[in-house]
Structures are given as C-alpha cells and as structure tokens.
Write a structure and sequence with these properties.
alpha+beta, globular, seven-stranded antiparallel sheet, Jelly Rolls
C-alpha cells in the first residue's frame, strides 16, 4: 500500500510540474476524437514521440487499445513498456504518467448505456476530479487547491 501511494504521489508531482510549465499545452494537450456506437463511447488520441503526459483519472473500468506506437508507462503499481498493437483493461482510479517513445494512437472504449453525446456530461460520467471522489487517498494533500 505504501508503494502505491508513493507512486501516486510521484505521478501527482509530475502532473503539477507539467501544468506549471509556460509551454504547457493545457488539459487535453493533443486533440481527442470522439466516437459513438449504441451503448459505447470511444475517445482516441494521437500523441507525438517525445511527449510526456499524465492521463486523466477514470471513474469506470474500461478497455484501452493501443493501435500504434511504443510508450513507457508508470502507474501506482510501477513502470512498464507497452508496444502496439495491444489491448488491456483499465481499472477504476488509475492515473498514468506516459512517456511517448514513438508516435502513439491510444483509444479508450467505455460503456455508454444511455448513449450520451454531450461532452460535458461524458466528462462528468467518466472522469474523476480527484481520488477522494473515488473513495481513494489523495496524493500531495499539501498541494490540494494549488
């Protein structure tokens, strides 16, 4: 448990450092493509080689498809390299620090039982604003609100 919280804190520090940079590209640094099918929502992003990003904190378990590329990923559970093409399950409450080693196409596919298409409602449904919202311990409590 201590290791999980240490890694969560390291990822939170990285996210703060990225946001503090004057050349910060904003909340969604690379354009998202949104797709819908009955009962499903997918968001796709293409990230250039060399980028370092911290992903959003998801409220739902879902699948991730990496269609192209190679990345180094750090989660609470540690670091690993992921090479496309591949698919993996993303549990609730995982935030990732990702170093894009080769241009990467990443797709999250989530259940969308009532076929929402309003982006504000979708963000509210799938993205947590904090670990506390998920009943998890918040990293860097001293920086909360900073």
């Amino acid at each position: 448990m201590i290791k999980l919280l240490e890694n969560r804190e390291k990822i939170a520090h990285l996210e703060c450092a990225i946001k503090a940079r004057p050349d910060n590209l904003g909340e969604d640094p690379f354009p998202l493509e949104h797709s819908f099918a009955p009962g499903l929502y997918a968001r796709q992003v293409t990230c250039p080689a060399g980028a370092i990003i911290v992903t959003k904190l998801h409220k739902t378990e879902h699948f991730i498809f990496m269609l192209k590329g190679r990345v180094q990923v750090v989660t609470e559970e540690g670091a690993k390299e992921i090479v496309a093409p591949c698919m993996f399950r993303s549990p609730i409450g995982v935030k990732r620090a990702v170093h894009i080693l080769e241009e990467t196409v990443w797709v999250n596919v989530m259940a969308n039982p009532d076929d929402l298409t309003d982006m504000d409602a979708i963000e509210d449904r799938y993205i947590a604003k904090s670990y506390t919202e998920l009943g998890l311990e918040e990293p860097m409590k001293e920086l909360k609100g900073a």
